[in-house]
Amino acid sequence: MRRTVEILTGKAELCRSIMGALPDWFSEPEVIEASARAVEELPVFGYIEADVVTAMIALKPHLPDAVEIALIATRPEYHGRGAGRHLVDAAERFAHESGARLLTVKTLAPRGRDEPQFEATRRFYDRTGFIRAEVFAKLWHEDHPCLFMVKPLMETQLSRTAL
Ligand SMILES: CC(C)(COP(=O)(O)OP(=O)(O)OC[C@H]1O[C@@H](n2cnc3c(N)ncnc32)[C@H](O)[C@@H]1OP(=O)(O)O)[C@@H](O)C(=O)NCCC(=O)NCCS
Predict the structure, then answer these.
(1) Which InterPro entries match (predicted)?
(2) Which of 93, 127, 142, 145 is the most buried (most CB within 10 A)?
(3) DSSP labels for 65-134?
(4) In the structure, which protein residues have their CB atom closer than 6 angstroms to any atom of ligand 1?
């Protein structure tokens, strides 16, 4: 059975396990370790297939209006099977229930190199309804331009307008 659940314990270990299986995206151990420590403090949801947590998402609320996807990752052998989309849906529900109007994410911007894995990530966000809002060339590092993407949550916007 497939389902999305909130992960309450073992978040750091789950993060290390999934990010560590994705060396094409996360090659630096210190980045994985920093993420593992960070997700301990954040709401985390997992997608479960046959008792395996195949994917995770960590959310950073910037309330009242926005919720940021701090991390999303699917185990490589489960890519392209819908886990990521289910977790974006869970993020939207969380944001909606928190009263937010926007889901956001920061990812690596195109930087003139042949990097199909990062292009695949950007395509994933395109396909799940995110808009490429702005590139911040030096937010992270001059070699790592940041693409800021946003997904307006229309229902929340409409219900607020109606009030
Ligand atoms: C990005 C990632 C989380 C997507 O997870 P996933 O479980 O494979 O995604 P899904 O199977 O739910 O795909 C959702 C949509 O994105 C599209 N998509 C997924 N991977 C894609 C790819 N490589 N190229 C183009 N589109 C892609 C799918 O076609 C699908 O669209 P559709 O439903 O309209 O057909 C996964 O590829 C991953 O773990 N990447 C490495 C880590 C990463 O990049 N994290 C984000 C860091 S900012």
Answers:
(1) Acyl_CoA_acyltransferase, GNAT_dom
(2) 145
(3) TEEEEEEEEE-GGGTTSSHHHHHHHHHHHHHHHTT-SEEEEEEEPP-SS--HHHHHHHHHHHHTT-EEEE
(4) 22, 25, 55, 72-74, 79-85, 107, 120-121, 123-124, 127-128
